[in-house]
Amino acid sequence: MATTHFIDIIGPIYQDLLKTCERRKIAVNLDIQDLAFGVSADDSVIIEKFFEVELKRAIRNCAAGDKITLSQTVTDDFYRIAVKNSGANTLSPEEKAELIEDGFEVRARFGYDTIIALKLPRH
């Protein structure tokens, strides 16, 4: 099974995000545990789609002075990738329920950061 490293996925995504956020005066942080972590080709597609959708949502919910954080943690059994934003706008109850139903971990409350995470088993 072909694998790629997490840095090869996150690198271009992060560079594009920096450009977009710089124009909008939104801070960007990385909280990555293992950039060299190997990811299967199938998971790579899932991760790219996750970032595409969730970064659009985060940018839409943020204003100048807000912050977007991309994070990744790795355990023996799974790895977790998350997009966190400090925007004042949060998810509607319907959006939150739909994301949870689709298998995402969601923490979104008015006045707190919004975090949407994708948890994948290690192969």
What topology emerges from the helices and strands here?
Blueprint: E1 3-5, H1 6-24, E2 27-32, E3 38-40, H2 41-61, E4 67-74, E5 78-85, H3 93-101, E6 105-108, E7 114-121
Parallel strand pairs: 2-4
Antiparallel strand pairs: 1-3, 4-5, 5-7, 6-7
Helix pairs in contact: 1-2
Mean pLDDT: 93
Profile the largest sheet.
5 strands, mixed
Assembly type: single chain
H/E element sequence: EHEEHEEHEE
| Global structural class | alpha+beta
Give helix % range: 25-40%
Distance between the termini: 10 Å
Task: Give me the number of helical elements.
Answer: 3
Strand content: 25-35%
How many extended strands?
7
Biggest sheet: strands side by side, in what order? 2-4-5-7-6
Structure commentary:
40% of the residues lie in helices and 33% in strands. It is α+β, with helices and mostly antiparallel strands and 123 residues long. The strands form 2 sheets. The protein has a 5-stranded mixed sheet, covered by helices on one side. Strand 4 and strand 5 form a beta hairpin.
Summary?
This protein is 40% helix and 33% strand.
Characteristics of this structure?
about 120 residues; alpha+beta; 5-stranded mixed β-sheet; two-stranded antiparallel sheet; 3 helices; 7 strands; about 35% strand; globular
